Each structure stands twice: as C-alpha cells, then as structure tokens.
C-alpha cells in the first residue's frame, strides 16, 4: 500500500508484483537472449553486420582508421 520494505512483503504481494512486471515488460534476461539471437542470426547469414559483429568492428559506418582501434584491441585480448 504505502512505502513498504521488500522484506516486509508477503508472498502474495511478491507474486502480484512479479505478475505485473512479467505481463507488459520484457525482463532483462529475455531481452539479452533476444539480442544474442538476433546477432547470431546476422552472423549465420553472413551479412555485413554479422561479419562486423564477428570481427568486433563498428557496425554503423563509424570511422575505423583511428577511433575504433582501442575498442578492437580490448576485445581481441
């Protein structure tokens, strides 16, 4: 009702909160799983973006001569 701490909630209240969250919102792990599936699909069809994902290079046309070097070195270690 008011400001209640998590450890003071009943099992019923916790279940209600979980149901409300699961109804309309994508939970964090579901979103990550979907993103990973999308990337795997791009890699499997060998499109430009999939190849760039594999290489760890920028996908959206960013400059790679100087700016992407640091990010690529960190990924390849």
UniProtKB/TrEMBL annotation:
Functional note: Located at the top of the head of the small subunit, it contacts several helices of the 18S rRNA.
Protein name listed in UniProt: Small ribosomal subunit protein uS13m
A GO MF term: structural constituent of ribosome
Residue span of region Disordered: 53-77
InterPro entries: Rbsml_uS13_C, Ribosomal_uS13, Ribosomal_uS13-like_H2TH, Ribosomal_uS13_CS
Localization per record: Mitochondrion
Keywords: Mitochondrion, Ribonucleoprotein, Ribosomal protein, RNA-binding, rRNA-binding
Quaternary data: Part of the small ribosomal subunit.
Gene3D superfamilies: 30s ribosomal protein s13, domain 2
């Amino acid at each position: 009702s008011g400001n209640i701490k998590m450890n003071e909630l009943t099992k019923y209240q916790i279940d209600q909160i979980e149901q409300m969250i699961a109804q309309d919102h994508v939970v964090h792990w579901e979103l990550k799983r979907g993103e990973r599936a999308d990337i795997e699909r791009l890699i499997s069809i060998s499109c430009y973006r999939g190849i760039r994902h594999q290489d760890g290079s920028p996908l959206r046309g960013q400059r790679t001569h100087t700016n992407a070097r640091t990010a690529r070195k960190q990924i390849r270690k």
